[in-house]
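Most newcomers find our protein records easier to grasp once they have seen one. Read left to right, the backbone structure tokens trace the chain's path through space. Once this layout is familiar, the rest of the handout is easier to follow. The record below serves as our worked example for the rest of this section:


***
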Amino acid sequence: MNPIFGTPAATGARDAEWDQQEAAFGRLITSDEVDTSHGPILYLDDVTVSFDGFKALNKLSLTVERGELRCIIGPNGAGKTTMMDVITGKTRPDSGQVFFGQRMDLTRMREAQIAHAGIGRKFQKPSVFESHTVFENLELAMKTDKRARHSLFAELTAAQRKRIDEVLEIVVLGAHAGKLAGLLSHGQKQWLEIGMLLMQEPLLLMLDEPVAGMTDDETARTAELLERLSGDHSIIVVEHDMDFVGSIARTVTVLHEGSVLAEGTMSQVQSDERVVEVYLGR
């Protein structure tokens, strides 16, 4: 137990406390208020999640530093999805601590609060508005007041248009700004969704199998994109494509039965007999 963070309260008390904190601020907590001045940006300590007696996570401990590109691998059922569910507030842990920055206890927060605070998650299947243009998708994803009155009458400012143009260039879709998202290739839809996450100004991006179904060229371009994003953003990539992982990995964490089995460089985990036995095969 890390003494910096203290002990989480019961779930009901957590929600009530966060509601009070929101009321005091008069708004949702933003990524600007996340304390990342020192220490990891993400901290999990002894996190356990059980479903009908099965421990999807079993005392999982993990830290991710600011600006780090971390790859998470492991066999099906290792706990990768449950880990992301816990970080994003979809699943409450039975025990353990989950902190974003130095003081933001994710176990006290709901999904929308966590997203607004600066954690973006991309699922394996791209989810874009196919009947809208690429530009409109980024506009819809922009981190703004989404209440009806504001949305109906708001016009893009020069700064907002500039930000959309910047993200278009980052995800290499500038030439497709006016194209309907439904006409994009599979890889381009994946990049657009990453762009939509970037419009939310996240500090931490979590990507679930981002290159599944991509061509070799699209996979290589995705690797380049993630390398450009790291440093400005912390990134967690959950992936089964070992060639892709090897091309981007700085640190690889191997999960097995809900816990960390091994951690290190790609070459280190590939040579670990335990990893070979349970995941990579002989």
Observations:
- Residues 1-11, 23-27, 146-153 have pLDDT under 50 and may be disordered.
